[in-house]
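Final report, closing paragraph on structural work. Over the funding period we assembled a curated collection of sequence-structure pairs, and we close with a single example.
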Amino acid sequence: KTLLECQSLAKAKIPEVLKTLEETRTQKNQYQFYGDLWAYFTSIDGHRPGLDKNMLVEEVEEAKCDQSGMYLISVEEHKTNRDHGMVQMSLTKDEYTWFSDFLKFKHCLPGGKKSQHFFFNSTSTQLKNLPAYLREVWKEMGLPETPTFTDLRTSIVTHVKNMLPKADRERVANFMCHDIQTADTFYAINLNPSQASETRALFEAALKGEDTSVTTENQASTSSKRKRKARE
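Its predicted structure, as stored:
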């Protein structure tokens, strides 16, 4: 529930923050924009912060788009690229617009003219203090506690484990660059926009679904007890 609330609040805030950033072009609002983006996408698919930290402007500009209007950003450099290949982000048309609109005035921000990274600081180098901005926007949203990227990732993995069948869990694990068993069990993933969109839908289904396993077990137990009583 909290993850879905985070998505809803961040989705509403991002266009407003982006507009304010374009008008003010201050570092404070830039980091606010980054924080909302991280909170939004991390609460959807649980990618490690390395996805954002290492994302290049060129990789955003070269995003692929399919006939349905879904976009796919592929980031080559990340923590587990040796085992899983590029890490990928699936975006709707509106979500990709947040990225493309930011790039239109990126060069006007401190450090933006020379930086090759999408997420950068005033010295034109990649931004590294991601957890702090996540905690800040999470608190501003009025959400409980102050989770880390790992907390959000773990929560999503738990939802996926409880809600999805094994085949879908493995597909999601590859998209997250996450190991269910061992790294060499899985292939390096490189999806097209449509496939990535389908995988994203699995995340959304896992977060919105209800875990009925306990209810099913209780029903089975009750049924078994009734049968024993009938035999007695």
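The longest strand covers residues 71-75. The radius of gyration is 20 Å. We thank the funder for supporting this effort.
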